[in-house]
Amino acid sequence: MSNEKQVDSGRRGLLVATCAAGGVAGLATAGALVSTFQPSERAKAAGAPVEVDISALKPGEMTTVEWRGKPVWILKRTPEMLESLAKTEDKVADPTSKKPYTMDLPEYCDKQKRSRKEHPELLVTVGICSHLGCSPSSKFQPGPQASLPDDWQGGFLCPCHGSTFDLAGRVYKNKPAPQNLDVPRHMFLSDTKIIIGKDEKGEA
Amino acid sequence: MAFVEKKLPADAPVVDKALNWVDSRFPLTKLWNDQWGKYYAPKNFNFWYIFGSLAMLVLVIQIVTGIFLVMHYKPDATLAFASVEYIMRDVPWGWLVRYMHSTGASAFFIVVYLHMARAFMYGSYRKPRELIWLFGFAIFLCLMAEAFFGYLLPWGQMSYWGAQVIVNLFGAIPFIGPDLSLWIRGDYVVSDATLNRFFSFHVIAIPLVLLGLVVAHLIALHEVGSNNPDGIEIKENLDADGHPVDGIPSHPYYTFHDIFGVTVFLTLFSAVIFFAPEMGGYFLEYNNFIPADSLKTPPHIAPTWYFTPFYSILRATTSEFLFVVQGGIAAYVAFIYVRTKLPKTIKMAIAGIALVAIAGMMPGALDAKFWGVVLFGGSVVILAFLPWLDLSPVKSIRYRPDWHKLVYVIFAIAFVTLGYLGVQPPSPTGERISQVCAVIYYGFFLLMPWWSAAGAFKTVPKRVTFSAH
Predict the structure, then answer these.
(1) Would you state the torsion angle of the CA atoms of residues B108, B112, B114, B117, taken in this order, to the nearest 10 degrees?
(2) Which of helix, strand or coil describes residue B247?
(3) What burial letters (b/e) apply to B161-193, b meaning 16+ CB within 10 Å?
(4) Interchain proximity B297–A40, CB inside 8 Å
(5) Which of A129, B421, B432, B436, CA to CA, is 20 to 30 A from B62?
(6) Higher confidence at residue B223 or residue A1?
(7) Looking at the predicted structure, is the pLDDT value of residue B395 above 70?
(8) How close A38 gets to chain B, by Cα (Å)?
(9) Would you call the peptide bond into A71 cis, given omega within 30 degrees of 0 as the criterion?
(10) For residues A68 and A47, is the Cβ–Cβ distance under 8 A?
């Protein structure tokens, strides 16, 4: 006793078309909802270069400024600190910064000191570890200490997963962080004033 | 079918009439009887069987206290921290509601870990309870998401940097990673946009999913019936009425049994809320009483204790450790080739995947950070496969060879050690120990198909072990 009716192919076609149209509208709506997760126009607009007065910075001192919501370290290195970079050269994973984190090492920076050639003492680097984005702490004091190797030359230690960096922001071998710290494009406006996020070529 | 309403005598009590009216339109009595009232549970439940009910209780506590917290909290990067302190200091009894919620979060994980430990011991995930286990696993994932999203809301230092680290985990995925973490954050750094969306996930999206999963977990449980410490299927032995001989209706028996457990739990819970709400920095980390500062990571950051076993595995994955992982994978594939009777194509597929993974771990290929995230995620996901990894002929640990108990103890020690090391600052010794524990953790699961079936098993009795008390 079959009760099945003949399928009306015209109506079946309309049914399929309606489902397809509904599906497209549904997908488009889902796409709109997913897109709301992207950075807003306001978030994109915030990112202007930052000017920093470094006249008060003494050798061996570091100051931190905010650029694009991230900490940027400005470290005025002493001659001893600069010498330590030769000793760490073969202990760091990528001594010439071939594999950058989010930005290439600016071409006007020295490969070892990772600072502008005319001001080798001044390290400008984004203080965000390339592992999972923590901000490493300063461990400038050389020698054995907690969480650090005995032949420590001074540098930075990431508190989250123990990555260590030398005084040029180069990551040591065998650490969770895969890349060196970023060196943003920067230039000197005068001997005591620098700008971060902008250089002779324009804004980064 | 025509609508038929049962006719009650005219002098029936009004309550009966009202219930009859409802039952004709909605299966209220049927639901109660199926899900609890006449749900026959094994009579030999022990201490370990209280944690399911307690998890339900904590869920209710979290939802109710959460509703009241939202009335005073402000999901705004400039106001969030102060609004939590406002709840703590100015809202009448606000501190109690907040401490109930923050302690509830840790209590939830304590209860759920013990609930899972019970399943491990008595094989509660085994056939026919695989779906109960999978729903439970999904609940566990939701809980982790709830805890993670919720932890950002106070906008303290730990909130901020914890979110930064976890969101950046997604950045380790090749090609799409950096864009994916940008998409999750909604900004180039963790910011107001991130706080707002995490708030939305924490108060509505995840709780909705969680409630649905809890319902599915319970429906599946009450469909196939509860396991018990002997791992015996009580439904295989029915009495004249069709009820399991070794079963008792949940109401009133387990109603009162559970109320007793609840009073003990609430005593302990209250003690923590009133005397140690921060639990020495484990339930509420001290650094989270400092407002979020995007320029400075606290000297020691660690996730809250319930994430640390998995987090330690992440931290243990260094480029050095990858050589061990490569060796482990190679040995595992060799083992599969020699010791299993899988079809050749499957063996080839396994070998192919292993080869890709080993090549990906070579220096210069995908870095240790990516593999850390894979091993971290894998350590959670592997739990879902438990029903198919355990091939022991008996469910309960009671009837397994004695040395199996030792395997479980070693696994438990490794898990707790990973948890402990995860709250400690990174150190070279800690790193080595956590690597050993990570190997034990993975070995426990990956080798389970063999060790769980090995040894001399004891005879499982026909009836549950029970002495009247």
Answers:
(1) -160
(2) strand
(3) bbbbbbbbbbbbbeeebeeebbbbbbbbbbbbb
(4) no
(5) B421
(6) B223
(7) yes
(8) 5
(9) no
(10) yes
Single out the residue of B316, B285, B295 nearest to residue B426, CA to CA: B316
pLDDT in tens, B313-341: 998 988 889 999 999 999 999 999 988 88
Three-state secondary-structure class, residue B386: helix
B143-192 tens-digit pLDDT: 999 999 999 999 999 999 999 988 988 888 888 888 899 999 999 889 99
Cα(B257)–Cα(B262) distance, integer angstroms:
9
Tokens of B311: 């987090």
Is the CB of residue B368 less than 8 Å from the CB of residue B315? no
CB contact at 8 A, B58 and B107: yes
Distance in angstroms between the alpha carbons of the first and the last residue of chain B: 49
Evaluate whether B48 touches B228 at the Cβ level (below 8 Å): no
Global pTM reads: 0.90
- The alpha-carbon gap from B278 to the nearest alpha carbon of chain A, in Å, equals 22
Which parts of chain A sit beneath pLDDT 70?
A: 1-4, 204
Half-sphere exposure in the Cβ direction for B405 (13 Å, CA): 8
d(CA A154, CA B171): 29
Q: Is B320 part of the contact surface with chain A (CB cutoff 8 Å)? A: yes
User: In this predicted structure, what is the pLDDT of residue B302?
Assistant: 84
Quote helix, strand, coil % in chain B, to nearest 5: 70, 0, 30
| CB–CB contact B191 A69 (8 Å) | yes
Indicate the helix (H) or strand (E) that contains A76.
strand A70-76
Amino acid at B330: A
Our measurement of the distance from residue B282's CA atom to the centroid of its chain's CA atoms, rounded to an integer in Å, reads 18
- Best mutation target, A64, A132, A173, A175, to test chain B (most B CBs within 10 A): A132
Kindly report whether the peptide bond that precedes residue B461 is cis, defined as omega within 30 degrees of 0: no
In angstroms, the CA B296 to CA A62 distance is 13
What is the DSSP pairing of strand B40-42 with strand A202-203?
unpaired
Radius of gyration of the CA atoms of chain B, in A: 25
Q: Which of B368, B362, B337 is nearest to B352 (CA)?
A: B337
Secondary structure (3-state) at B371: helix
Write down the residue that tokens 């984190």 correspond to: A101
Residue keyed to tokens 């209220």? B28
